[in-house]
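Notebook, bench 3.
Goal today: get a predicted structure for DNA topoisomerase I from Noctiluca scintillans so we can plan the truncation constructs. The sequence was checked against the plasmid map this morning, with no discrepancies at the termini. Length recorded as 664 residues. Pasting the sequence as submitted so the record is complete.
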Amino acid sequence: KDKKEKKEKKDKKLKKDGKDKKDKKDKKEKKEKKDKKDKKDKKEKKNKKNKKLVVKKGNLKRVKGMMKKKVAQQKAQQKPSKVIAKTEDDYEPVNRWWEQEDGAAAGKRGAKKWDTFEHHGLMFSEDYVPHGIRMKYAGEEVRLTPAQEEVANFWTSVKGSEYEKKEVFIKNFWAAFTAKFPEDTHIKDFNKCDFNDIWEHREQERQARLNRTKEEKDEASKKEKEGSYLFSHALINGVRERIGNFKLEPPQLFRGRGEHPKQGMLKKRTFSEAITINIGPDACVPRVLGLPGHAWKDVVHENTVTWIANFEDSITLDSKYVLFAANSGIKGQPDLLKYDRARRLVSTIGKIRESYTKLQTSQHLVDRQKATATYFIDRLALRVGGEKDTEEEADTVGCCSLRCEHLTLEPPDTISFDFLGKDSIRYQNTVVVTEQVFHNIDMFMKDKKPEENVFDKVTPTVLNDYFKDFMDDLSAKVFRTYNASYTLQKELLKFPMDKMHHYSQDDLVKYYNDANREVAVLCNHQKAVSKNHAESMDKMNAVKAKMEKDCKTLRRHLSSLNDPRNEKLKVKGEEAAKLPSNAASCKKKISEAKMRLEKHVKQMELKEDNKTVSLGTSKMNYMDPRITVAWCKKVDLSIERVFPRTVRSKFPWAMHFPSSYVFE
């Protein structure tokens, strides 16, 4: 029995050992097989990566596209996912003030604008940090104090511009610069000064800023936003609104508009002691951040105005205001009222024209002048004008301040205008007027010297009082808004709706821009030709020539595909590899190339036509935006094509008007 049990135990053990050996062997074989497979896969992957692409003729473009797509995908996988940080702006509801019962009532002059109003004050410009670079005088280096160095820096900022050669600018700069030196200084002659070392240092700093990496620029932008975030908004009636010019201008050399007699003077740094703050009576008065030990000039609680702060300009001595941004509701309300006022003028303009036509033959000289001036304001969209001190500001004129030297009469009914309007923009226009208007102007100019006023009995106040007889809120400014809006609508109504399907989106944009240009010309919205305009047009012409050549090559290739035996038609060389292999693809390519060429030609025409005309001014300030919105909806044109983001954000109240809107 014992022997039998021992034998059974031995057999059992042998059986178990045999099974273990088999399991070990199977595991080993499995592992070897897996290792062999992994090795093979790695080898195949390596060979595939190193394998050169065999590109067939005609497939080069397709393969390049595939490779480009593959590289882009690899970069996208390697690049960490971008984190979008949301701010209060993303969650805050839109202030739809135009849907409220009182609508834009608060936009009226003298009306109560707010019940509660609070903000954090203003952001002051940074202190000047001296760099220690010396200027040269008569060839010798001169060490400058920080105050002197700062003004010298301002001069180098105009190097290469038109101001560098303007006598008035140089004279005023020199007076500001030498005022920083003691009276017994040896620096007496501007022509002996050499600021090139300072300019080169500033240029190096500028290039360093331009050559920053994207990450560095983003970081700087982030810091700037964080620093200004506290001051960028105000709470008005519990609604958060953006402030426009919350950061005070740093000191600089004054440039002014046009030929300003004070250009080149030093515009000083503004301190809190010159600033009056407007805020709600229950709000906490903001501290003067960044200027320890300083305080505001005054704090007021005027709820019939919308300015946040005001101060006196150190050059012009005019009051300057810190206002809300153009896209805020508090600025949108007066805009809506302005265009509604111009719209109401449509029904009243007939009576006004009838009145001033009768007054043109009045026995009273004041009435005659008043009626003739109104004719120019109505028909030519002239600004009303007023008396100016030419020693304090540029000699610009409007209708009431026209001088005899600005007008040339050509019998029997033609008058030529030539004068400097707002911002010293030259106004040149020759118009045919009525016989009575011509006679009146001839009479007003008789026996007068060239520098005397044509309308010597009329002032803007007299004209505006006359306009109040027709509308309580009518002034000379309303006529420009009316004329701009009426002209735009008149031009857009000429669009042939029955042929709309023939117009592409680009054609519609061109049609709108042509109408906009008519308004800009009427309102004399001009701009100087860009310095790079000629160079830009040359580049566009080169692109046009390349496109035309490509179209010609494609047409020739199509002919060779249709007639393969004609060797003369065949395209040879590198170009042949990029061309389609069949006639259908070639026709498609020709069609696409022609569309691109037409689009490019239209862009060139638009750029050339608008080189001296500013279309944006009338969009932002004079043309009723509802006319544009209605027309775009009518012709199925995307509003983004004619209204950039800044314009759309300024007029959110206009975006919901239907295509049936009419300016009347």
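The first helix runs from residue 2 to 50. Residues 481-528+612-663 form a domain with the Topoisomerase I; Chain A, domain 4 fold (CATH 1.10.132.10).
Flagging this for group meeting.
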